[in-house]
Amino acid sequence: MRIALFVTCVADTMFPEAGRATVAVLEGLGHEVVFPAAQTCCGQMHVNSGYQDEAARLARRFVEIFGDYELVVAPSSSCVGAVRELYPQVLGVSHPVLERVFELSELLVYQLGIDDVGASFPHRVTYHPTCHSLRVTRVGDAPLRLLRHVRGLKLVELPRAQECCGFGGTFSIKNADTSSAMLDDKCECVEATDAQFCTALDGSCLLQIGGGLSRRGARARPIHLAEILAST
Questions:
Q1: Predicted confidence band at 1 (pLDDT cuts at 50, 70, 90)?
Q2: How far is CA 221 from the centre of its chain?
């Protein structure tokens, strides 16, 4: 199957290894992954900051670039949620391709019917379900099903897992004190698991959590789910 990679801004600039891992996982399963070089931001930040016209232009550009692909994958539930939910509901941009855009774990489990990609990652790992993956893309247990099939991985439950890490895009800037307090709670929960790694579907949340853990001197490190799935 031919699948287009929507790498997203955060993955492109801060988590390029997540984009490469996404390609590696899908190619390892026999799929062809293509990268439309003209792609840009999905416009989520613009919508959240009140720049509707600018966001609508980016939405139309996304449709123009990805409109002919059978499937589109992204290593970000946040950006996928923006495309599927914000485009038609907020920006008035609609196209059949919007229903063919998926975050990696939901693509693998629900669209391709795969929950074992043959990965091996012999470490103690906890999973943080990000707000967008819970409430917008609604990926369900797809990430957990994939993690449970990774050889050598010890999956430990994260206390108060469904609580926000405090990032929320511009929320962490405009409400820094509240964001920091929420992050402290999340980091305490991660440390309580004694995990070596904290994984999630969104690089933005991993940046937030990883920064907090680093400042606390915690042993846990952030890692994108795609990187675990690409490990052998």
A1: confident
A2: 16
Indicate the pTM of the whole model: 0.94
Q: Of 8, 49, 10, which Cα lies nearest the Cα of 210?
A: 10
Could you tell me if residue 43 is left (phi over 0), alpha (psi between -120 and 50 degrees) or otherwise beta? left
Q: Candidates 3.40.50, 3.40.630, 1.10.150, 3.30.230; correct CATH number of 2-111? A: 3.40.50
Let me know: does 73 contact 43? Beta carbons within 8 Å. Answer: no
| Distances 23 to 101, 142, 167, 192 between C-alpha atoms, Å | 15, 18, 27, 33
What is the CB neighbour count within 10 angstroms for residue 136?
18
Query: What does the alpha-carbon distance between residue 31 and residue 193 come to, in Å, rounded to a whole number?
Result: 36
Q: Is there a common fold for 2-111 and 124-229?
A: yes
CATH class of 124-229: alpha beta
pLDDT (mean) for 113-122: 98
Tell me the pLDDT tens digit for each residue of 163-212: 999 887 777 777 788 989 999 999 999 999 999 999 999 999 999 999 99
Mean pLDDT over each residue of the chain, to the nearest integer: 95
